[in-house]
Amino acid sequence: MIRKFAFRSLIFRLFLLSICLSSLPVQAAKITPAPPQVAARAYIVMDADTGKVIMASREDERFPPASLTKMMTSYILEGELTKGNISKSDMVPVSVKAWRAPGSRMFIQEGTQVLLSDLLKGIIIQSGNDASVAVAEYIAGSEAAFADMMNQHAALLGMKNSHFMNATGLPAEDHYSSAYDLALLAQAIIQKYPEQYGVYSEKYFTYNKIRQPNRNKLLWRDDSVDGLKTGHTDAAGYCLVASAKRDGMRLITVVMGTSSEEARAQESQKLLAYAFRYFRTHKLYDAGQVLETAKVWAGQQNQLKVGLEDAMAITIPRGEGEQLQAVLDLDKVIKAPIEKGQSFGSLKVMLEDKVVAEAPVIALESIAEAGLLQRIWDAIALFFYNLIN
């Protein structure tokens, strides 16, 4: 049974109102210029809520990620904190290996113990290789064992073009990632551990009386930018994963292999400006929102509320929101017993005859089977119903 919701229906009324109030005139908004030229080896712009890739180049190719690697290190650390396996108040011992880590440093001292909360900031803000090694050893026992954890988490996130050999991003054979994979990782950091995300926007951190700035220049230039991480080696070039939120829309950008610190900031700004100007994310339905009340046969209730398990949002060019149509395809016959979460069809959102979003429609409640007499009566009624329909 397929049902089309017109825009004046109850479900889309508020959605349409928000579009009418905030969209540009339709004819003007439909003009979307070509994406800007980006001076980077690879890049991507992704909507953080929908996962929609707005523009990209060589996004699946494998390149050295340099200190962007530390996003995975901090992601695992944040996960362990959330699970309660470790605490920010833990005192972490500093090994000789951590102390001797070359490159960017937090300046921790061998033989001392450091607060885990300070190491988290040392990894994210100061890009400390020493802090990364200390955390890797504390969580997994050794950096090699931690790298194995990194690769397992990468697989779970769908990072198909990533492989990690260390926790720092220092050059190593068979250590690589891609722009798309790093965008997926940034999305996971933002969505899974929002309570830790504020660290990525901090501009300075002082440890051992040494004050170091966050290397992400966009934190000073654009108030909407609040993360995430920079990276640089000779092989990787200058890299930046950034995220910004404007008017309820959050974007993630990744640039890899630019020529300088200034270039990675400028190229990221180009991507953010274009995507925010010409695209918009529409939040269509909340998780658990009632889409329809369906007829139930042989149940203790004769009506079933159905909806979506997860919230639904889409990212489309500005001005195209008024052309959206929702198509609800429900099972013709729904019989008890019904378990909450059981699927009974699908919801498709169409734009110019193309499916731009789709999700299963599920039962929002459980309904037990009716008694024998009710089931017999419904079986008779259903027989004639099927004849007519």
From TrEMBL:
Keyword S-adenosyl-L-methionine (UniProt): no
Known EC number: 3.4.16.4
Peptidase S11 D-Ala-D-Ala carboxypeptidase A C-terminal domain segment(s): 279-369
Reactions it catalyzes: Preferential cleavage: (Ac)2-L-Lys-D-Ala-|-D-Ala. Also transpeptidation of peptidyl-alanyl moieties that are N-acyl substituents of D-alanine
Keywords: Carboxypeptidase, Cell shape, Cell wall biogenesis/degradation, Hydrolase, Peptidoglycan synthesis, Protease, Signal
Signal peptide limits: 1-28
Enzymatic class: hydrolase
Origin superkingdom: Bacteria
GO molecular function, one term: carboxypeptidase activity
Keyword RNA-binding: no
A Pfam family recorded for this sequence: PBP5_C
Pathway where this protein functions: Cell wall biogenesis; peptidoglycan biosynthesis
Record InterPro entries: Beta-lactam/transpept-like, Peniciliin-bd_prot_C_sf, Peptidase_S11, Peptidase_S11_C, Peptidase_S11_C_sf, Peptidase_S11_N
Job description of the protein: Removes C-terminal D-alanyl residues from sugar-peptide cell wall precursors.
Family that this chain belongs to: Belongs to the peptidase S11 family.
PANTHER family: D-ALANYL-D-ALANINE CARBOXYPEPTIDASE, TRAFFICKING PROTEIN PARTICLE COMPLEX SUBUNIT 12
Protein name: serine-type D-Ala-D-Ala carboxypeptidase
Organism encoding this protein: Amphritea pacifica
